[in-house]
């Protein structure tokens, strides 16, 4: 089966389109083959049990069942942490992890069959690019070529411009950091391909070892400024080249934006952005002898289009990264040779970095939902519908449990409108439905019946949705005046106590206002209004229509940043009057709270926040907040990967903590916590 792969370059290039850089580097020479190995046994495990990398960097699928994906957990100037290489042979149901993946960030993966593959990595510590090869499906890797230290490239965009092509197991090309290399012995030796002077290759597309095209730029300006996009063609394996394309009137273009795809020896497309950031698309049907202008505004502006891929003369994909703006990203898909393009994921806020296609209908993509998380997704109908393969399905925006087993969650890294259900206390989740509007808060007092408040950024109002079949279908029962933009990310509050009575947070600033309903959400009346301190936070929870608690930041001075602690207050008349029951000084940073009765409740707080002595504490009270017991929580809920926190309990023992990278559960009232699954 034919395979098409796009390298991960969009994010890096996006930064460089607007930042001054260094000059175009000189070509590099191959290093002698090395016998150095990087190895690690592969052991398959269900997707739910695999710790997916926080950032995906490369992928390659060669059949609907067999594929590889690489990434890392954290980046720093000293190197990557949590570098991972995952492999599946059953379409993503189970994954095997290489325990000792090749060192460095994986820029490119390419397998010609389930056994033989190549990889390009970049290591920040020594600023070297390395080519690795595997002959056992990725279990072990041997180094084939490494960029000499004397040829270190200062231009980051060119470091990340990588691509691999093989025709069989012996003959292939690698584009690495502005240098085109060729091999005729499976990578035992790599030799630079001679190209015209002042030409820097940016992308390549070969239909065989002899026939291929290289897109690049001519120009000597700093960081490629003042350069022109050019396409060269060879019919003899790179021994000689002819000019196939250059833009009319010597038009300039955005450096490094050229993308090239030839699915057949005749049909090809060239994409680039001109110096006004207009997305330009040309097509040829005669192998590059003549080119026709098809598009002049394809993925224009400050979004970053990744490398384009066509599977045949009709179907093509163009991944779009949201860039530094950020603007909506996704995948642009054409089914008529580039004349018309349909978006996928733009309405979901995707930022797509790379794709891999096995056919015109079967494809995979890695990307992210900014400020939510990264994902690997799969389609079998040409991009009309998608399924998230990694990470395992876990809610990202909110959870509500009706009992220790049944819970409902909202949001996925790949779909902010997702509604999920668990029947095993959060160990596994199933996506039940997907809402067009973004869910803001969820409340399920019963396993099958629940409510969601939803609204998209920029909407003038939110909507209240109701389901009686566990979330499969939803009905709009009320329109709420609150604009979605007015809610702070951590503070939407919705709570139904039974089929009729509930509370909803109607404003967040400058006062926290809650309205109540007695008819299942059809009508609402305001009943709580607590004024917040400027710049201060507020957390609120109710155990019944009458009994509730609030944690409000206090200040003895006016103005933001003057908070000196928190007051814990309670009400027994539905918010008409409030009594302060406890003051926490500024050595605490309260993140969330949950009460199940007027006496039994919990607070998650960080002691000595934002210092080297910070310690997260789960605080528990059994006397309505008068006294508290603190238990250390050995989990960094204050890290940048876990900045969304929600706590919910259903009884005195069973509770959950939702953080950005997962769910924690307790069965002993908060004394100990385990990661789900």
Give the CATH class of the domain at 532-677.
Mainly Beta
By DSSP (H or I, 4+ residues per run), the number of helices equals: 2
Spatial separation of the terminal alpha carbons: 36 Å
* Average pLDDT over all residues: 84
- Sequence of strands across the biggest β-sheet: 1-31-32-33-34
β-strand amount: over 45%
Helix content: under 10%
CATH topology category name of the domain at 532-677? Neuraminidase
Q: How would you describe the shape?
A: elongated
- Taking all Cα atoms into account, the compactness measure Rg is 28 Å
Count the E strands.
58
Largest sheet: 5 strands, antiparallel
- Structural class of the secondary structure composition? mainly beta
* Unreliable sequence segments: 7-42, 150-159, 558-562
Annotated CATH architecture of the domain at 532-677:
6 Propeller
Structure summary:
It comes from Desulfotomaculum copahuensis. The chain is an all-beta fold. Among the domains are: 134 residues, Neuraminidase, CATH 2.120.10; 146 residues, Neuraminidase, CATH 2.120.10.
Polypeptide structure, described:
- There is one protein chain.
- The protein is mainly beta and 677 residues long.
- Among the domains are: 134 residues, Neuraminidase (6 Propeller), CATH 2.120.10; 146 residues, 6 Propeller (Neuraminidase).
- Helices cover 2% and strands 46% of the residues.
- It has 2 helices and 58 strands.
- A 5-stranded antiparallel β-sheet has the order 1-31-32-33-34, with no helix packed on it. A 5-stranded antiparallel β-sheet has the order 2-13-12-11-10, with no helix packed on it.
- Strand 57 and strand 58 form a beta hairpin.
- The longest helix is centred in the N-terminal third of the chain and has 7 residues.
- It is elongated and about 85 Å long.
- The protein starts with a strand and ends with a strand.
- This is Photosynthesis system II assembly factor Ycf48/Hcf136-like domain-containing protein.
- InterPro entries: PSII_CF48-like_dom, WD40/YVTN_repeat-like_dom_sf.
- It holds the Pfam family PSII_BNR.
- It comes from Desulfotomaculum copahuensis.
- Keywords: Photosynthesis, Photosystem II.
